[in-house]
Amino acid sequence: MARRRAQPGDQQVATAGLASLAKRPVVELPDPVPRLLRVEGLGWMMLYVAAVLIGLRVIQPSQLLPIRLPHPLLMLALALLATLAVAAWRSPRRLKTVSGEWVTPGPIHAGEEATVGAALATSGGAPPFTLEAFNPTTKRFSPVVRLKGMGAGSLKPSWTVRFPKRGLVRLPPLIARCDQPFGVLSATRAIGEAGEVLVLPAIGSSKKGLHARLRSWLELHSTTTADAGEDELAQLRDYRPGDAPHSIHWRASARARTLLVAERHALGCRRLALVVDTATDVDGARFERLLCAAATLVHELGSQGWSLTLHGAFAPSGVHGDRERLLEALALAGPDQRPVADFLPPGVPALVLCLGTPPELFGTPRPLAMSLAELDQLVHIPSRVR
């Protein structure tokens, strides 16, 4: 999958974070080696006929027949065997001019249908053959394209496939299968190298209460930021009945000797750190649901303009970047028993996602911790992840 080039404004912590991600295990798919030659139905028939004719020739007449088999029938048996030998020698060599490689455009999310393809090329033409690719769902090679032949040039066939698990997936080389000449044997040849694709976590959707929950939490800390400019103040206006008391700008009100309310920029302009608690001893299904919820928050909040960073044992220095960069970090996350409190960033509102009961967390501003049970009320997780 094509990766985003590093931008000049990316933080140095992003590099350190992704460096630690590279140490995570790769999702290895089995690499079955198909048989180089496979006898087809016509080939088995020819072998049977040749064996019968030769057997009748060598058996003594007194044992079975009053006379020996005529010489032409013996020649026919030898001709059948010669045809099989020529096909076994010729079929694999007809595919030597074919080359190819995986084409995996992104992004690809776990459980969703994705379009993948191959870039095929031949220098001197190729006979009719079938392109087979490894299917990560069935874990077997399956025919994906049947070509009636190729002239000198290139071709880019495509097909749909579903990756059931997130993570870095290595795919076995593509296979070309040809039954020419004669159609009695089927020869296979691996073309190109093994492919690699990063499968992102599944993404759900947010429910109505999610943004209201975040808004009520952020408003509690809107006037307590220590660094100048981080409160994202838009303007001051006179107090109106019904305004929340915590929205009053007390310092400005004291100077003006009247109550003034601070109007702030939209919540989409705020900074937010997502911290994923990976300390778990439970089954992997609940952990995958937690990562799905985190990916959903990255997708929803990132599309609304939030400036997000991602933290956790899988990214101890934090990862900052666009939506795809954060989802890539989640795709490579794994369980880790280090406490989540070790990865809370200072001075930034932090949303902590936990599998079980959230631990007691402290910070300025104080983090908002959500358990998986609470996330189920705010985020819709696809049934394939459940």
Characterization of the model:
The protein is an alpha+beta fold and 386 residues long. The chain is 27% helix and 29% strand. The protein has eight helices and 22 strands. It has helices at 12-21, 41-58, 71-93, 209-220, 250-256, 284-303, 323-331, 372-378; strands at residues 27-28, 37-39, 98-103, 108-109, 113-122, 129-135, 140-147, 153-155, 158-162, 167-171, 174-178, 185-191, 195-200, 205-206, 233-238, 260-264, 271-276, 307-312, 315-320, 350-354, 368-371, 379-380. The chain has a five-stranded antiparallel sheet. A five-stranded mixed sheet has the order 19-18-17-20-21. Strands 1-10-13-4 form a four-stranded mixed sheet. A hairpin with a 2-residue loop joins strand 18 and strand 19 (315-320). The radius of gyration is 32 Å and the shape is elongated. The two termini are 27 Å apart.
